[in-house]
Amino acid sequence: MMSMLNRRQMFQMSALGIGGYSASGWMGALAADQAAKPRKAKSCILLWMDGGPSQHETFDMKPDAPADIRGEYKPIDTSVPGLRITEQFPKLAKLMHHAAVIRSMNTGEAEHGRARIYLHTGYKQGAGGLNYPTMGSLITAGAKLPETELPNFVVTGMHLNPANWSYVSSPGYLGPRHAPLIVNDLKSGLQNIRPTDDAEFDERNDLLKSMTNSFLKDNPAAAATTQRTVYERAVQLMKSSKGKAFDMSQESDKVHDTYGKHAFGQGCLLARRLVEVGVPFIEVYHSPTAGGWDTHTAQRYKEVKTMTAPQLDQGMSALIEDLATRGLLQDTLVIWMGEFGRTPKVKPDGGRDHYGRAWSSVLLGGGVKGGKVIGRTDAQGGTVEDQPVSASDFMATVCRLLGVDHEQTVEVRERPVHLVDSTAKPIDELLKG
C-alpha cells in the first residue's frame, strides 16, 4: 500500500488519524443510513470544569452564612433579577438571562475518576459490567446522525491531563466509530489537511480502494472494513472546504483577544467555528493547571482566583455572546459542569475537599428556558432541600433538549441496554415550548 501513495500523502492521512483510528474513531465504520429525528438544538458544547468547582464560589453562594462557609467572595447581581453569582464572573453575570442554574446536583460520588465517568455517561463505573459511552458519543449516536465530511464529536483542551482522556472520550460499548476527534494543538489544528486536486493522488487512491475491496470480498473482517472507511473519511475531509474550521489563523487578532489567548478561550473559539460548520458535539476541557478546579488548599484557590476563574469568565462569555450575535445560540446547547462540588466548610488551610451531595451545573442556549434556578440547597450549601438532580436525570435532560430519545435501547452483547438509566427523569420545566 505504501507504494500506491507517496510519503507526503501518507503523512497527510496519518496527521488526520489514519495511523491510530481508535484515538479518533469518528472515521470508523459508516453509520446506518437512518434519518435523524427533528432536534430542538442542533449542536452542543460541553464546557468541562475538571477538578470540581466549588458551588459556594460560583453559582450557589451563601453570603449570610458564617465566614468559614461563605468563603471570601461576594455575590453580584446578574441580568436576571434576584439571581446572583460570584464576583469572579462579572462578564458571565451579564448573560445569565440565557442560563438555567441547577443548584441541586446530587450524585453522591466524590472521587475524581468515578465521578468523571458518572457525569459523562449517566452510569456509575462498572454498572452492569459495561463500559458506557461518554456524553458526546451517547448524544451523537442516539440522534442517529448521518455521516458527513466532519466528525460528529470533537474534544479539545486535555493537554495537561492526558490520563483523563478515557473519561472524556471513551465511546464505550458503541465502538470506535463514535469516538471523538481529539484536537489539543490549537495553533496547528489538523495539519496537512489542505484540499487536494492532485490527479495522481486520486488515481492511486482509486487503485487502493479497488485492491481493498477485492481483499474484503474474500476476507470480510471487521478490522479491514473499518480501515477502509478510515481512509475514505480522511480523503473526504482532505477534499472538504469545511476542514478549514480547524484553522484558527483565519480569525482576527481582535477575536482571539476577545476569547482569550489561553487554551480554554481558544477552545471556545474553536467550538464556535465547529458549530458554524455543523459539528453536533464539542467538548472543551478546562484545567489550566494540573489541579484545575480541585481546590483543596489556599494555594489552589489562589490559582483559581488569578487564572482559572478569569479564563472561564472571558472564554465562556465570549462564546455565549458570539453565538447569540450570530444567531446560533438558540440552536446550540451550552453546558457548564464539573464532576462534583466542594465541602460546605472551608478547611483551616483555606481549601475545600470533594463533595458529591450538593453542587451546581449550568445550561444555556438551545432549548433552555433561561433565567431560571432549579433546586435549592440548605443555608450551608451542603444538602439538597428541593428537586435533587442525579447524573442520569441530567443526562436525560440534555438528551431531551437535543431531541434525542433518552428511553431508547441499544443491543449490547445480545441484550438491550438503555441509552440513559431507565430511572432518569428529565427536568421538564427547563424545556421551551
Description:
By secondary structure, this protein is of the alpha/beta class. The protein has two domains: 1-30 and 196-239, no CATH class; 32-192 and 250-315 and 330-430, 3-Layer(aba) Sandwich (Alkaline Phosphatase, subunit A), CATH 3.40.720. 32% of the residues lie in helices and 15% in strands. The chain is built from twelve helices and 16 strands. The chain has an eight-stranded mixed β-sheet with strand order 6-5-7-1-8-11-4-12, with helices on both faces. Strands 2-3 form a two-stranded antiparallel ribbon. The chain has a two-stranded antiparallel ribbon with strand order 9-10. Helix 4 (112-121) runs parallel beside helix 12, helix 9 packs across helix 10 (263-276) and helix 10 packs parallel to helix 11. The protein is globular, with a radius of gyration of 22 Å. The N and C termini lie far apart (55 Å). Residues 1-39 have low confidence and may be disordered.
